[in-house]
Design a protein that fits this description.
Length: 542
């Protein structure tokens, strides 16, 4: 049977529509990633991507005319409101998704709407809550191996954590760290160590390997990206990382990849922290598995593991930290003693411990909220949740005000309550803002004068109509004159057919009914335009 669908290879950019040329340009920027192309209230998927997405997500496949009269352009779509869920399903299946967004209001566009690729979602760069486990990090890794030497970088875009290490590739240390940190996506250099890449895929079959060009792993690029990303004038503050050639190159590769996938929305990241696995108890892959530290050997679940037994944390942030501590037991006696003193402090002071737990209960995940907000994928509800979390910090500080251990005293001194930020968020946002940014009703009354003016215009519509109606009755002497509105014809002044001849000269006939005539005046027309445009302007301001 002849293929009825038009494929991307069948289309010449020179013999197609402006929109299709725009689509092809966006597709050329995203490679093998699936392109979600914004068209109004939907993200549409076209051509070969549509055939794949329709199958993976069980969507209805439709079509439109193509350049070939005998073949159709396949397409499918998902609502903008629900796109996160569909992206989550695709990423779980091992696919990446590129978003091409409308960059202007279609109602104001001259010609075709401007569109731009704004973001690519991959397993290691995802920020959607549907794809994340609260209690574990979502690491993007980069590895560089040459002979017996190796370097690695691990970055969690959702929390900002950035770790690097240098090690010998043949002593198992690198494999053990990969097992401990469990990255979901790994960047490896094109034409790099093929034996290492093959072994990496064999040992960690669920790890998504992404091949990157050799230039992404250059030291010069790494230095430039680090200085620019973290606004530094020198690398001196990075300690051992400056001298760790391969680890530094891996940092550059991760930053280049994040910039490529997130475009201009680079997340807030902590400075890369170079660490030595020797600072922790050596736990090889078999030991981690056999001791069932964070997952059972049978069904790989947390329940029944050491983490499952110990985890009484109240927040996702706490569970992630506990997981890290279990997988990285301390070696230094001073550090161990400091941590044990802190535990003793909370163990012996029951009332302090219970007060602290109560304050932490229901605390939103500050790290991940910040991650989504800084890459422009957050919404007003998440900003509100951040404000709620910050609002709980003074209570947390009060709960541990009487601590005795050195470690907890240090923690107490380092906590910034950020009361000004919490107050600003509370002042600006409604108690329950909508989930999307283009629905309106985000900003409180009194926060923005221009927004308040427009709201007064819309809310005052009913009162204004009543006042105008009385004013026109007095002016014309027509006692039964009515001012009304309907969605088709807008605002109007209605006079019975028998009194229509009494209409003043500035009344323009708008509609004729069986028993009445409807009119508009220049003033009413101006007011109509103001009110009808007010809601649109309100949404734009918010």
């Amino acid at each position: 049977m002849t293929d009825k669908w038009l494929h991307i290879s069948d289309i010449s950019p020179h013999h197609t529509t402006p929109m299709m040329r725009q689509l092809l340009q966006a597709k050329s920027e995203c490679g093998d990633s699936l392109l979600f192309f914004r068209m109004g209230d939907f993200y549409e998927v076209f051509l070969d991507d549509a055939l794949e997405v329709a199958g993976l997500l069980n969507l209805a496949l439709t079509s439109r005319d193509g350049t070939d009269k005998e073949k159709r352009v396949p397409m499918c779509g998902v609502p903008v409101r629900a796109v996160d869920g569909y992206i989550a399903k695709l990423v779980r299946m091992g696919r990446s998704v590129t978003i091409c967004e409308q960059m202007e209001d279609p109602r104001e566009a001259k010609g075709i709407v401007k569109r731009q690729v704004v973001r690519t979602v991959t397993p290691g760069t995802v920020t959607e809550p549907e794809l994340l486990e609260n209690g574990r990090n979502n690491y993007l890794a980069a590895f560089l191996v040459s002979g017996d030497s190796g370097g690695a970088a691990f970055v969690d875009m959702t929390t900002g954590e950035f770790l690097t290490l240098s090690c010998s590739s043949n002593n198992g240390m690198l494999w053990d760290e990969i097992s401990r940190l469990s990255p979901v996506e790994a960047l490896v250099m094109d034409k790099g160590d093929s034996v290492f890449a093959a072994s990496l895929k064999k040992r960690f079959p669920d790890l998504v390997l992404t091949i990157r060009p050799e230039e992404d792993f250059s030291r010069d690029l790494a230095c430039d990206l680090i200085l620019d990303t973290f606004k530094l004038s020198t690398l001196k503050g990075l300690g051992a990382l400056e001298e760790s050639e391969m680890a530094l190159s891996c940092v550059g590769a991760t930053l280049a990849y994040i910039r490529e996938t997130q475009r201009d929305a680079v997340p807030h990241l902590a400075l890369p922290r170079h660490y030595q696995p020797s600072a922790y108890v050596a736990l090889d892959m078999n030991t981690q598995r056999n001791l069932e530290l964070v997952a059972t050997m049978g069904d790989k679940s947390k329940r029944g593991s050491l983490l499952g037994v110990l985890d009484k944390t109240q927040t996702g942030m706490g569970e992630r930290k506990l997981r890290q501590w279990i997988l990285h037991p301390l070696v230094g006696p001073d550090n161990i003693t400091a941590r044990l003193d802190a535990v003793t402090d909370l163990f012996e002071d029951v009332s302090m411990r219970l007060a602290l737990r109560e304050r932490l209960k229901g605390m939103p995940d500050i790290e991940r909220l910040q991650g989504r907000i800084t890459v422009n994928t957050g919404n007003a509800r998440e900003v509100k949740a951040l404000g709620t979390a910050l609002g709980q910090i003074p209570g947390i500080r009060a709960a541990i005000a009487e601590v005795q251990s050195t470690l907890l005293k240090t923690v107490l001194q380092q906590i910034d309550p950020l009361e000004d930020i919490a107050a600003e968020i509370d002042k600006a946002l409604m108690e329950e803002p909508p989930a999307t940014l283009n629905e309106g009703n985000l900003i409180r009354d009194g926060y923005d004068l221009s927004l308040d003016h427009l709201r007064d215009l819309v809310r005052g519509g009913v009162n204004w109509i009543a006042a105008l109606q009385q004013e026109e009755r007095n002016r014309t002497g027509i006692a039964k004159l009515k001012v009304g509105y309907n969605r088709v014809f807008g605002y109007y002044i209605e006079i019975s057919r028998g009194q229509a001849h009494l209409a003043p000269a500035d009344y323009e006939r708008k509609q004729t009914l069986a028993n009445a005539e409807r009119f508009i005046t220049p003033a009413l027309k101006q007011r109509e335009e103001e009110i009808l445009n007010a809601r649109e302007k309100m949404e734009s301001i918010e």
